[in-house]
Structure formats: structure tokens, C-alpha cells
Amino acid sequence: MLTIKNLHASIEGTPILRGINLEVKAGEVHAIMGPNGSGKSTLASVLAGREEYEVTEGEVIFQGKDLLELAPEVRAREGVFLAFQYPVEIPGVSTTNFLRTAVNQVREYRGLPSLDAVKFLSVMKEKMKLVEIDQKLLSRSLNEGFSGGEKKRNEIFQMAMLEPILAILDETDSGLDIDALRIVSNGVNKLKSDRTATIVVTHYQRLLDYITPDFVHVLFNGRIVKSGTKELAMELEEKGYDWIKEEVNAASV
Amino acid sequence: MDQRRSECRFRLIPVFTDNLLKSMTITTKNNLLDSFLSQVPNHTSFSEMRAFSKDFLEKNGLPAAKEEEYKFTAITKKLEKAIDDFSLAKKTDLSSDLIKSHLFDGFEGDLLVFNNGNFEKEFSSISNIGYNLSLISESKPDLLGKIANKERDPFVALNNASFEDGVYLKVLKNQKVENPILFLFLNQANHGQVINSRILIEVEDNAEVTFLENSISLGDEVYFSNEVTEIKVGKNTQVHYNRLQNESKNAITVNNSETDIHRDAVFTSVVISISGDMVRNNLSLNLLDSGCEGNMYGLYLLNGKTHVDNHTNVDHTKPHAQSNELYKGIMADSSRGVFNGKIFVRQDAQKTNAFQQNNNILLSEDAIVNTKPQLEIWADDVKCSHGCTTGQLDEEALFYLRARGLGKDQAKGFLLYAFAGEVMEKIADEAFRTHVINLVESRLGSNF
Predict the structure, then answer these.
(1) Which of A110, B37, B110, B362 is buried most, with the most CB atoms less than 10 Å from its CB?
(2) Residue B136: predicted pLDDT
(3) Whole-model pTM?
């Protein structure tokens, strides 16, 4: 579904990603871990099409298409979803209103009829249960005055509404208490299918107790320096990242 | 370099330069003013007011380039360039169909049509339920000229000196006028480019009324419209005044609107400016007693070379009064917005609450906004706040919306609409609000 080959990206001339290779197949969950500043969020942002980043080398093929050629909105319509690390507060734009436009844009792109207000509401009600989100929250301005947990739940709710093929969760667990983490993870798990894939970017192993990854990759200095299974995440939790850094440094000498 | 050279000349022949400069300014002043005033027929009514204003104008002239109040809006220069025919614009041909085509969907209310500033009785529909309408020339109200400060702005004085006629609308005591009253200004300069309009509104105690005002150009010809609206809102009244300025790209407009607000009354003004060449709004609220509230909301949505200047002035004179102000602007192309908000709190006006906010979004590198809060507070127990922001569209928010599948223009539209919506929702009449929202929305996508 997704093939990343030798991806290099920089921001304002500073290289952040220095040759990422990754293959994600339908039905898989990949966890991307790594110390602060290793490039995890950059990878998520580049995949979603954030314009501040400049891709200097490499390619990303999504469902047979050159993803890097596509505008962010086209990527979204193709089925890429980024759950933001810091969801943006947008005063004056109601979640319901905006989401209906978004859903219908995506449906139109996929050749589906648009949802009228009534149908949209019934779909919304169903998806709301997934992340235990309150309708009152959704009639308010997008993320405005939401708590951290509410914002993250709203991200997963939007994901449920947009039905992506590839979901990228950028530190969705950061700053969540255990209850919120459970709710968010439940939502993600329920949305998983053998046609979709998930990339979970996280700093903490804790999230992986709730969302079981098929693969765990460690990102360091803009490269994937180690890949493994869930056990690798356990090891990282136990020993921290220093041994990885040492391994990398030793290899490069 | 140039500056040094001129200083040098000044030092060498100071007397000559000084005199020359003086006589030059006076000549330009008088040329333009004379052109205006020479067109004024001899009026017998309000002769004292007219003479006073004429005298004031002759002394002070129209705003000079350096005049603080008109620093960013070179209106005099604009008029000198644009206006050749200083006579009053004659009535243009109207028909009921034409008027109908300029009414917005769902309009239900009384209609007052103005043809180049002249009241058109035959095209208007006046129920006179809860209010009385008369021509100023017939009723000769004593109140006329007593509200608008004729010493503050030369354009008020110019209207005072030269207006032909206007309407006097009196809302009667304890009446609630159910439907809104719409002032429809249809402007088209033919044979004469000057339009004067004059409105006097008196709302008696305990009454409630909503006014709508829509200014529309019927052609692209250059004209100068100088409007004066005086409003007295009596004790315990609720008055909404909603104004839409949507004139041609060649229209020059000065709107002077001043309101006296009496005890426990609430007056709300909403001004939406979306087109014109140069528009200057002088909006003044005088909070004359305790318990009264003055609200001023404005939205300017500018493109091309449109220049809109909102000068607002609120005068707190007595304790326990409140004022709220929110003006928002979106500027594209090489348009220019000016906001100047004066809040005056007199020594007597303890326990005043006064809030002011001005926010601007610049969509292009060539767009300009000049914003200036001006607070003068003489009382010591008050709550006053002001703030202004100017920035571009929030890139992070734009990306967020696009990442969910909204096209770039659509995402931009959403954000701009959210920004502008806060002002539009203050419009009191639903049909008018919908009309404004539709006009604004059509501008917020790809074809701003």
C-alpha cells in the first residue's frame, strides 16, 4: 500500500529525514518510535503534505501513486489521514459543518453520492460512539477550548468519519490520561481492517499496550536504525534509547 | 536630499516660501470648497445652521493632506481629482422593477427609496405604523443639526450647508416597530456628481426599531456621496442600525452618522463595507446618561484598490454606561483599510465599561491596514480594554483543513468566513443577515 524509498526531507535547509525506507501493507500496524528530534513527526508531516518541508530525495508510492506529487487535500481524498500531534483550534468553524464538507469532498472524489444533512447526522451519531464524544462538543467551534483529551478524541472521530486507507497517528497518545488513552485506542482498533493500515508515531511504549503493532521501527537521526516486532518496543521501554544511539554511533565509526 | 534642499531654501527666503505655501493651500482649499458651495442654492430653512457651517468651512477648509483625522485617507485630493461637476446629481430614472431587483430575498418591512439622495415617495412603502415620516422641508424639526457635531468634521458642515432636503422619521413612544425599516440608496451620477443625503431619526422613549440601510450604485460613474444621519434614541429604547455599503469601484462616500443615546437605551450599529473606491465612515455614539449601551460592529472586505476608513468615536459622559466595539477587516490586492477607534471617558463617567477590538487579515503583500486605538480616560474607576491584530491567514489552520480533504480555496473560505462571521452574526434582521452572508460568502472562495 505504501512504499517509502530513500526519503530525504529538510526544513529551511536543515536535513531532518536522511533516507527513510519503509514498506506498509494493508492490514498492518507499524509503530514508529524514537527519541525526541529523531524525525518522527517530520515523517508524518511529509506524508500528509505539510508544505514547510522540502523533500530533497527519494519517493513515496501510495496505492500506486506518487504521493509527493499530490496536494494535501488530494492525499486526504486518496485516503491518507494524519491525526495531528497538536490539533489546531479554529474559532468560528463548527466541527459538524466543516466535517460535512470534508466528508462530501472525499466521497465526491471517490465517486460516491454526497450525504445529505440527515444521513450525515446519522453516520455521525454512529461514529461518535466509537470515541465516546459528545454531540455538544461537535457543535462548538473546531477544537476551540477543548481539553487535550477531547482534541485527540476529535481527531479519531474525524478519522472514523473520513474512513481513510492509511491512518497516521502523530503522537496521539501524548498528554492523554489512561482513560482517554483507552478510548482513543479503542477507536483506532475498531477502525482497523484488513484493507487499511495504521502508522503509529509515538514516544511511549504505553500506547502499544492498547494498539498492538505488527512492526516497530526505531527512528534516529532521520533514519530507521532498527526494526522489529512488539518485543523491540518492550526492550526500548526497559532500556531507553541510549543503547540504540550507541549501536548506531559504533556502526558509523 | 530633497528635504535638505528645501530646508535650505526656506532658510534663505523664509518670507517668500512661507507666503507662497500659505497662499497655495488656501487656493486649493477654496477652489474645491468654492466649487461645492457655489452650487448651493439659497435656502431659507435652517439658515442659522447653514451659515454657521459655511463659515466653519471657509475657516477650516476640507481636510488637508496632513490633517491628523484624515492622515491615511486623502479624501480632498481624491475629490479634486475625481469630481468635475459639482452640481447636485439629478434624479435618475427608476422603476418599480429596478427597485425590486435591488431588494434582497425575504425582505419584509417598510421601504424608503432615495434617488441620488432625494427621497422618492412614490417608490417607497411606508406604513407609518408606530412611526411618522415627513420631509425635513415640511416638518422643519428643531432637532436637525443638533446631534451631528458640526465642528468636528468638515463633511458634516458641508452637508449642513448644502443639503436640499431629507427625511425625518420619528418612532413613537412605547411602540415596537415589528418589521425593519429599509433605507435603500440608489446612486447614479448623471449631470452632477454630488449626492447629499440627510436623515434625522428620533426614537421616543421605550420604543424598539430596527433600521437597515443599503447603498447601491446603479452605474460605474464617479460620484461623491456625502451622507449625514442623525439619530436620537430616547430613554429605555432598543435600536439597531445595520448598514451595507456595496457601491461601485468609482464611488466616493463619506458617511457621517452620529447618535445620542439616552438613559437605559441600547443602540447597536453594524457597518458592512464590501465595495467602493474610497469610503470614509465617521460613526459617533454619545452615551449621554447612565445605564445606556452603545455597540459598534464593522466588517470591511476589500479588494482591488478599495479604500475604507472607519473612524469611530464613543463618548462616555455619565456613570454606569457600556460600549462594545468589534471591527474586522480582510484586505486583498492593493486595498487599504483604516481603523481609528476613539473612546472618551469623561470624569463623571465612573464605572464605565468600554471594550474595543480591531482584527485584520491581509491577503496580499500590497494590502495595507492602518489601525489606531485612541483612549482618553478621565475617570478613575472604569474598565476599558482595547486590542488590535493584523496578520495573514493562519497557515497551520489552513493545512489542518486541507489535510481533511478541503481544497485550498475552500479551506481559505472557511477560515475567512469564520473570521468575518463574528461580525455578520450581529446583524439584527435575519433576511438582511442572510443577504450579507451570501454576498460575503461569494467573495471568500477563489474569486475574493
Answers:
(1) B110
(2) 96
(3) 0.86
